[in-house]
Structures are given as structure tokens and as C-alpha cells.
Amino acid sequence: MVQVVVIAAICAAGIGLYLNERTSREREQFAGPAAGADYLLLEVVVQRVDPGGLSMATKVLAQPQGALAAPDSPLAPAVDLQVETTSLEHAALRFPARQRIGVENVPFSLLTGRVSDYPFDRYQSLVGFVATAGDRPVPVRLELINADPFFVLRNGGEQAEEGSVLVTERLSRSRSTFILAWFMIVAMWALALAVLTAAWLITAQRRGLVWPALGWMAATLFALVGMRNAAPGNPPIGSLLDYAAFFWAEALIAVALTAVVVRGSRVELRKSRAPR
User: How far apart (Å, rounded) are the C-alpha atoms in residues 192 and 171?
Assistant: First the structure.
């Protein structure tokens, strides 16, 4: 009965952590002045964060409000709109008058952070827009939504002036990614130490070549490679995860396996040469 209660409590805690992370991940961010009568709403959806390429892929949808929207089509501007961005690849968005607005792919640069620090890597990105209708600035309201399950975005500060908004986004690994990375580190060390202990017992007891143990050790050596490649976020080789656990675990298992074979071979040779 106690075991059932413990298992139920663990499952309930896991579901609670999931619901909490889902709520925090799907939380929308708003920046810019409070919505007035006539303003431009920019919906920015973060689709994918690429730490290796130092970029953050987003989709931007401009939604003119009030007098800025065409009377016959709310998805079209009444006048020509131009939106300048802080993106180095897509610096300006242009929306002709009375033409339906579509979604724009706008990548933003990651200004700080090293992917080799995985899973403790953190980044910053400047998400900014300046909107004008003709020659006049347009109030900008920014709505940011995170759709990347591997990262959490937090508002690190914002600046809003007439016709412009600039947000400093802080990016870090999601809780689930962090937990799984820590589990992999602990599991790698546990498996390596288990193999090392078994190798010490086999050699100390002079058991010779124990083929089931050798098969298990070799399987563990290659299984850790698959585990490491399954790390969420595809960290590059040589990251902190490797130096903290993977390289050491592989080295310990390889040394233990080699020691068992060398000492076991000597024992088997002595047994074969012994008179019967």
C-alpha cells in the first residue's frame, strides 16, 4: 500500500511540474504602450532558437488597428506601412495600402552566450521595431509568444518611444531540458562506476574471461554514445556535458573492459598450460 501511495505521489508531482512548465512556457509577453485607438499590433512567434547559428527564427504578423486598418479589410492597412526591425537579415517590412498582410519570417541574432556551455548556456536577443505610416510614426504594441519547447524566454527590459519598441529577451534552456541533461550526467557516471566496480571484482578474483560481463561492458560503452546523441537540443561535441560526464564515462568503461580482457587472458592461458 505504501508503495502505491509513493508511486501516485511521484506521478502527481510530475504532472504538476509539467502543468507548471506548460503555463510558464505558453505565457505571452506584451511590450510597448497600452493599446490606444490607432496603433500597430505586432505578433511575434518564436519558432526555433538556433544556438549554433546564433539566431532566433520568428514569424511576425502585423495587425493594424483603428484608423490604420482598411475599412473593407481589417487585415490590410489603410495606408502604406513600413516597419524597421533589429534583425540583420530582414531589416525592413513593407505593407502596401489595401493589400492583405501576410506573415513575415524574421530572424533575430543571439548577442551573447556559448552553446558549448550546454545545458547552462544562456543568451540575449534584441527584438525591436520602428513603425511609420507615410512619414508619421505609428504606436507599436508587441505581443511575443514562445513556441520553442527547448528554451524559455524572459523579458530582460524594454524601451518604448513614439513609434518604436525594443525588448531585450533572455533565453535559457527549459526546465525539462535541464532535468534531462542532469539525469544523463548522473546516469553516465553511474554506469561507468558500475562497470569499473565489476571489472575490479573480476580481476581481483582472477575469474578469467567472463563473457557475459564482457558483453555487458561493451554494450554499455556503445550505449552511452546513443544516450549522448539523444541529448535534447543537439549540443555540439565538446560541450560541458561531455567534459562533465560523457568523456570520463567512456574512458573509464574502455579502460575497465581492456583490463578485464588482459587479466582474463592471462588467467585463461595459465589454466590451459596447467597439467591435467
Answer: 33
